[in-house]
Structure formats: C-alpha cells, structure tokens
Amino acid sequence: MSIQIYGFWRSIASFRVRVALKLKGLSFEEIPVDILAGEQFRPGYEAVNAERVVPTLLHDGHTLFQSLAIIEYLEDIRPEPRLLPLDPKDRAYARSLALVTVADAHPLITPRIRNHLVATFGADATAVENWGRHWTMEGLATYERLLERRAPQPFALGAEPGLADICVAGHTIAAQYLKLELTGFPVVARLSERCFALPAFLSSHPFEQPGYKATQAR
Amino acid sequence: MSIQIYGFWRSIASFRVRVALKLKGLSFEEIPVDILAGEQFRPGYEAVNAERVVPTLLHDGHTLFQSLAIIEYLEDIRPEPRLLPLDPKDRAYARSLALVTVADAHPLITPRIRNHLVATFGADATAVENWGRHWTMEGLATYERLLERRAPQPFALGAEPGLADICVAGHTIAAQYLKLELTGFPVVARLSERCFALPAFLSSHPFEQPGYKATQAR
B66–A117: do the CB atoms touch at under 8 Å? Predict the structure, then answer.
C-alpha cells in the first residue's frame, strides 16, 4: 500500500505517526510542511488538513488527520504487530497514557500557542520557554506517577512497544527541546531510553530527519 | 454492571462520558469533584486519578481516566449501540473529529490553564475570557470547515449519534459558557441542536446536573 504523510521534522505528532508506521512495517513517503515558516497556512494545505496542522496521512485516496486517530487507523488496517493490547482495560490504560500528552500536555506547547502568548500577553522568549517547561514538567510528573504504579516490563504495556510508549517517548522529545533533565523522572527516563534503542523510534526522532539536518548544514 | 464516575457538573469531559454511558444504556452513579474549588487536589483523589482531573470511571475494580479512552472502553465492553462506525476510514474520521476538541481546543481552556495565565502573565478576567473565546472559536471554525465538506446526515457519521457528535456537542457547551454565538457556524449549530434534542445529551448537559442547580439555588 502507498502511504504518504505531510509532516515536519520538529513536530512531535509527526514523530508519533512515523514510529507507528515503522513498527507496523509500513513504508511511507514524508512531504515536509514547515510549520515554523507558516507553510501550513498555504491555501492548498487547508484542503488536505482543515486544522492546518501536521501530520496528515494520505492513504487510498483519503486524508486522515490527528496523530492518535491515524495510529488507531493503522492498527485497524494492519493489526499486527499490535500497538494496543486486546484486553479492554489494558487498551483503556494504553489510550489514557497516550492522551496524557496528546490531549493534556502537548497541545499547550505547540507553535500556535507560543505565537498566541506573544501576541496576546507580549510574552518574551523566556516567558514562552517557561510556559513550555511548566506544562512539559506537568506531563512528565503525571507519567512518572502512573508508571511508578504499574512498572514498565519493559514497555508500558508489556514486552513490546506500542501506542503508550510512542507517546511517552514523544513527550521526552519535548523535554529535550526545552533542555529539561529527566533525573527527577527515572521511570520515564528508562522507558524513553528503551524506546530510542529501537530503530523505529531512533530513526523517527526529529534530529534524524532530513529537514533538521538541512537546518544544521546552513 | 456497576459503574461510578468522578465528575463535575461544569466539566465538558465529564459531559462526554455521561452521554456515552447514556447512549449505551449503562446506568452509573456520579460522585462530584468540584474542580473550581480545588477538590481534585485532595490527597485521596490522586490515587484515583494521577492527573488530578475529571472524569474518572470506576468499573470492575479498575479506575479509568481520560474521557476519550473511557468512551473507547465503553465501546469495547458494550459494542452496541455503536459510537464508532466499523469502516476503518470512518472510524478514523470519527476519532479525528473527536480530537479536534479533545486534543486541540478544549485542553487550552480548562481551569488549570486559566489559573496559570493569571499566575504567569497576570491575566485579568477579560484576558482569560478572550483567551478562551479565541481557542473555542478556532475549534468551531475547524468543525464548520470539516462538517461543510461532509454534511451530517443527520449526525456526523450517519443516522445515529456517536463519539464525534458527543465531542462537537461538548464543544458547543464551551461556546455557551463563553457566550459565543454560533451564527457563523451553521452546520455546527444544527448538529448541536440535533444532539441536544436527544435525552442522552440533554440530561447530560452541565446545566441539568444537580451540582449546577445547587449553585443556582444559593
């Protein structure tokens, strides 16, 4: 099957979709949309993604948006290897872990929020960074509390990495962007290390993308 | 089966879970947690909900959190009536619509964000309200663009209400809180009206909850 994604090297939601595709063994082509340069506001892109965000997945003549919905779609069309367990309570736990960052922490630190803080409150670079650090720390603390109660063995839901691990690993990328130490969150840190020891995670990391490497070469 | 939820009358995420339970025909008891009065920070509640937010669902000795994960859980344990369609692309569309508010608009206007804007930027009541209005309008505009392209017939995914409708209806409650007119968003407005014509939606509305009525009686 032919799959394309509109993504951006720095986007953590794009990272999540990349990892899911790779864990499923699905090849894809990534079309860059530079959301820091405002390329998501080009008129043509709104037809692809009504929210004007990344990622968007193109498959079989359809466009799909929202990273979590995309990953669930991949699970529906290509069940193996599973990214969600089969037991309903475990599935709920996996989805809840995902949503800690997808619904609660990550939406608060995206470019559109940072830009709005500047425009509305005259926030300077330090204030914007502190805002990001605050909510990223909140997410890390929640993850640590949750993972302490149900220790990863070695991944959040068991022997194999899945949706929850993808989202926790993505959250640690936000921490990395903001130069936050993970020393206060040892269970999160170990889980993230385990994830990035796998090629699917490592090769999906923002700093491994061509777009990032191009910025470094300038 | 015995189901309890920790919820709050004003919480839109609690509203979503109430509607899903009622559409599924599952009876439940709601235990109020006044998140405006800070009851979510009582030490005992953190054991129930590591994020210290509502809602939490208690079932069969387990606690489940995050409204979307809870609704997916209800779909897993009680498939009929379906809140998600069976076709993978339609399922993805339903989940994407849900996430427009669950992951993008609603997290930005919760009490913890409003409090943080006050604490960090010294935002006054007007600034906090304008912040809420901005992001709620963004969500309404996204919904209108999406629903214009694929007209509700009469609900977002077809003849019966489901996850997507629950989330759109919840978003219009945020608009109601902020006294935003829906006149610029006619497709959203009609869908919301259709939803609230149903007892499962109407009886789940914040202003129909005992906690709200108690505030009015004071």
Answer: no
Question: What DSSP designation does A101 have?
Answer: I
> What pLDDT sits at residue A123?
96
Q: Is residue B73 part of a domain?
A: yes
pLDDT tens digits for range B94-142: 999 999 999 999 999 999 999 999 999 999 999 999 999 999 999 999 9
Chain B: residue whose CA lies nearest to A62: B89
Place of tokens 């979590």: A68
DSSP B135-196: HHHHHHHHHHHHHHHS--SSBTTBSS--HHHHHHHHHHHHHHHTT---TT-HHHHHHHHHHH
Classify residue B87 by its DSSP letter: S
Residues B99, B107: contact at Cβ < 8 Å?
no
Q: Contact A114/A158 with Cβ under 8 angstroms?
A: no
pLDDT in tens, B154-168: 999 999 999 999 999
Shared-domain flag, residues B95 and B66:
no
In whole angstroms, what is the distance from residue A202 CA to residue B205 CA?
45
The answer to the question of residue A216 being in a domain is no
Q: Tell me how crowded residue B164 is: count the other CB atoms within 10 A of its CB.
A: 28
Query: CA-CA distance, A132 to A175, in Å (whole number)?
Result: 9
- Interface contacts A/B by beta carbons within 8 Å: 124
Three-class secondary structure of residue A62 per DSSP: strand
Q: What pTM was estimated for this model as a whole?
A: 0.97
Q: Which of B81, B101, B122 is at the close of a domain?
A: B81
